[in-house]
Amino acid sequence: MKLRLVALAAAILTLTSSAYFAAKQVLHWKRRGWKAPPHEFDGFVAELDVAIPPNARVLVVNPKGAIGTKYALLLNARLHPRVFVTEGPADWIVEMPDEEFVRARASYRRAGP
Amino acid sequence: MIAVAFAAGFGVVSLLRLRPKTGAGLLGGIFFFGVLWLALWTHLLLLAKIPLGLPSLVAGAGAMMIAGFARWEREMFRVSWRPSWSSVPVLLAVLFGIAGAVSWPLLGYDGEVYYALKAKSLVYYGTFWNPDYTDPARLHPSARRPLLIPCLYADFYLLAGTTDGRVLRLWFALLHAASIGVVHDRFRPRPLWLTVFAWLPILWHDSGGVFTGYGDVLLGILLLLAMDGLRNRQPALAAGALALAALLKQDAWPFLVALFVATLVFRREETLRTTLVLAVPAALILAWSLLSSGLRPADEGSHTYVTPARLIGGLGNWPHVVARYGSELVKPSHWGFFWLVIAGGIVLLARDLTREDGWWLLAGGLQLFAYMAVTTAQDPAYIHFATKSQAMRLAFHVAPIFWYCVGRRWAEKEDYFSKQPMSAAAP
User: Fold this and answer.
1) What is the pTM assigned to this prediction?
2) What is the pLDDT of residues B240-271, one digit of tens each?
3) Which of A59, B223, B368, B405 lies 20 to 30 A from B232 at CA?
4) What was the ipTM of the complex prediction?
5) A72 Cβ under 8 Å from any chain B Cβ
6) CB count, 10 Å around CB of B83?
7) Nearest 10 degrees: CA dihedral of B36, B41, B43, B45?
8) How close, in Å, is residue A64 to chain B by CA atoms?
9) In A, which residues are within 8 Å of B180 by CB distance?
């Protein structure tokens, strides 16, 4: 009987926790209008996809000069075969105002001579 | 896409004579082994430097299906479709897990950041010998890691034509759901395990957990299947599962060494059989290590590669790593409850320990050792990161084997209490 109770408690706890996490996330999704969050980022990726030609070399920088951040890695995966580099020379520069890539509005420009 | 996976999976189930007993075991097994066979085949193509593409991928599925037909027996697919009440909470938990994972923002978990890039690169160039993997100036922090999950993603990309993060998470979620069917079948005729195994979704924590692309739980399930295969004298299953594990994560490598040593100490009579099984993943590790040594090195401060030299060099880190994990895992927010239940289950087992319990405790212990060994091989800054914010991943790794170990006995007790006395059941 004790074992049955333990198993029942396990099942209830499992279902409750997974239902809680699922509901939290689905509500989060709903608040964003069922768009693939973060859609600000998706819009930026779409812009870059048009502006930067395939195989161009791209350097991502932020005010600290950091490269290889999560932001850069995400762009790297989404925009392949653009070449994201960790050092120059680069054809394009993506500038991040800070490290918060969801809220921040990043910009991009052609690299200077 | 699903048809190709099922064709390959039929071949694996038939070739290995897995003999599923339930509908869930049959469907889950065909899908699980089909998807993983395609990923393994893709990885083998890459190792052999055969260009990756749709024809070579479909050839792998076709070859496995033909091999399966050669060993096909009608009885192998005669299963029970009778549903069990205990499958209801599991199904609900799977649905919750999928809903949670699919709705969580695509903010840069491994699936969206590493695997998608690697898969796109593999499909674009047809090989890992390309500038994305070799050029140190390119952004690619872990080029020398084994490629099983990127291969799984690449297969999906080739067959479905997309690397959309949400769709890939759904595919990965289905693979995990299928694995529940596979493990359920190994537990038969113990019905209660399903409820116990339903604990697993707790690990699908609020960032989508395993469904966001972590290979941790998948590694745990593969090692569980491998240890079950070794125990039940199914060497092909054991070798296949260990080969998949070796190409999935480097954490499997010290596990294999530890398993070999444990066999020499505790099961000397099985040394030859186990060595033959271990030779398969060892050959793949050797091939990958040799071929990947020319790829770009790990970035400073990131998870570094496991080598014998780094493992030996990290011996001094053991006390620190054990203390750090120990202090983190007792915190409720860091899976303390999970460890508490596991520890309680093991204490209950200890009152009446069988040889089979010992086998599974050994397997869990080897996994703990392997995971911690990999942590000790890291740089101090990464050890701090791994033992604090990534501490839950240790639970991901060991959950399947420890649940099996504990839940199996609970299920046996339950059967014992719920069954008629033997004399009453006799004709």
Assistant:
1) 0.91
2) 999 999 999 999 999 999 999 999 999 899 99
3) B368
4) 0.86
5) yes
6) 12
7) -170
8) 17
9) none
